[in-house]
Amino acid sequence: MLFIGIVTDSKSEKDIEKLLTNNKFLTENNVIFIKEKNIDNIKNVHFDTVVINRKFEKEDELNKLLENTKNVVINMDTNVDNTELNVINSNIITYGFNSKSSITISSVTDDDVLICVQRNIYNNFGEIEVQEIKIENNENYNIYDLIIVLVLFLVYLPEHDKININGIK
After folding, report:
1. Which of 82, 154, 155, 158 has its CA 20 to 30 A from that of 27?
2. 163 pLDDT higher than 70
3. Which of 45, 11, 9 minimizes the C-alpha distance to 29?
4. In Å, what is the CA distance from 163 to each residue of 13, 59, 104, 113?
């Protein structure tokens, strides 16, 4: 079974849950929201992917989870110091407005958001090449929550070119 861990705040947790509700593949698998208060209960879980969307106070415990994680997705616009994370054997995917991120937010308008995949990303189905992805700007959701779901779709869905993030298909 596949486990995806997400480190984020409570508002983003609710929004990500809503965004993932209509996606059959990701809801059949376990998405676990990692918090300081529950990390001791999940220390033996082997995560395929861990998304870090905020600073995590129990850094040593988080590093233990990251030791065998296949993919680590990091929001570069937060105050997370990725040099202190134990991601030596992991595929690192970074995202944010930062121009050096793997996935950048190129432009945001009232109607849509242009996302740029700046480096090839490898998943179980092959390689996702450099490209631009336009998604509808949904003001009900934080842009970072939309990016998290987009990254999960890119990594876990074989037909990533047919992603409809707002309809979440």
Report:
1. 82
2. no
3. 45
4. 21, 34, 17, 14
Query: What does residue 38 show for φ and ψ, rounded to 5 degrees?
Result: -110, 0
Q: What is the pLDDT of residues 18-40, one digit of tens each?
A: 888 767 777 666 899 999 999 98
Q: Does domain 3-95+141-162 have CATH number 3.40.50?
A: yes
DSSP-derived pairing of the beta strands 126-128 and 121-123: antiparallel
Locate 89 and state its tokens. 């054997």
**Confidence grade of residue 68 (pLDDT, cut at 50, 70, 90):** confident
Q: Domain residues of the chain, as ranges?
A: 3-95+141-162
Segment (H or E) for 74:
strand 71-75
